Amino acid sequence: MVSDGKDMILTARPHDAAYVRTISKQLLLGLDLLHRQASLTAVDLQPANIMISTAHRDILLEPPEFSLVTWLDEMTMDDSAPKYLIPSQRRRGQLDEADCSELMVKLGDLGGAVQNQESNDKPVTPTALRAPELIHRNSWNSSIDIWALGYLIFELATNEPLFPLGTFGLSKEQVDDEHLDLISRLLDGDDHINKTLIRHLADRLPVNFGATNIKCFASFLWSMLQQHPQKRESAAELLYHPFLTEHVSEKGKHDGGTESSGQQSRSQMLLL
CA 57, CA 11: separation in Å to the nearest integer? Predict the structure, then answer.
């Protein structure tokens, strides 16, 4: 594969609706296959474990560069380290201008995947991507993947973390409290429409994303980011969400006409 999700969110720019729709659908297809046919929970969904390439494009790798490992003077040499290191051969930015219809997305690094069942074991999940039940140290199931996917899709769309969680100098309890506070501030609200989430997206997505698309995208994320695991939709159900099935033109009449030039007015329009 040419890139991973981590590279894709280093561009410092948000993506349009077609791009987000393409990535989201393929991620859900992979997760549905994992959950329903393989009966597995990934538990470690994160940007570096999303592999992305293109279907109709020649991709060249950088020539390999070998660096000899050198030991510090005070260290005793042994066989615990490799003799050489080699950086990634992938060229950065190769997919920046790629046609989103050509993107191929796969889930990778499933070495930590576990059988679908209720569990009380601590999963290997990045701190910021933990679902509320993991923060509370309650039992969990495959719906933690759905929560993590909602986080990842938000990040891929906006190039910002959903919950900018600080951990330096904080105890585990303080990190947990901060995490729960961030979740509460953004996601507490009505079950059908979360105006805070819509406004949050409107302030971060590009103007050409479209007002109707932003509302629909907020609903899509809302279906994944339910704080109660039982309320989260499955991957199979999410594949039929209107954001993926009803392609709304970014500038068409179904999208509320021409977008306002200011982010503040866009937020107000979305909440009408």
Answer: 20
Please classify residue 232 by burial: count the beta carbons closer than 10 Å to its beta carbon, then call 0-12 exposed, 13-18 middle and 19+ buried: buried
Residues pairing with 106 in the sheet = 51
Q: Which residues pair with 51 in a beta bridge?
A: 4, 106
Residue 218 token pair: 């907020």
Cα torsion for 107, 2, 129, 23, to the nearest 10°? Answer: -70
Model pTM score: 0.78
Q: What is the pLDDT of residues 57-111, one digit of tens each?
A: 556 566 777 788 888 887 787 877 778 777 666 666 666 677 888 888 889 888 8
Give the H or E element holding residue 144: helix 143-158
Please report the DSSP string for 189-241 in residue order: S-SS--HHHHHHHHTTS-GGG-HHHHHHHHHHHHHH--SSGGGSPPHHHHTTS
Distances (CA, A) of 225 to 35, 235, 251: 18, 13, 28
Q: Which domains occur in the chain, in start order?
A: 2-244 (1.10.510.10)
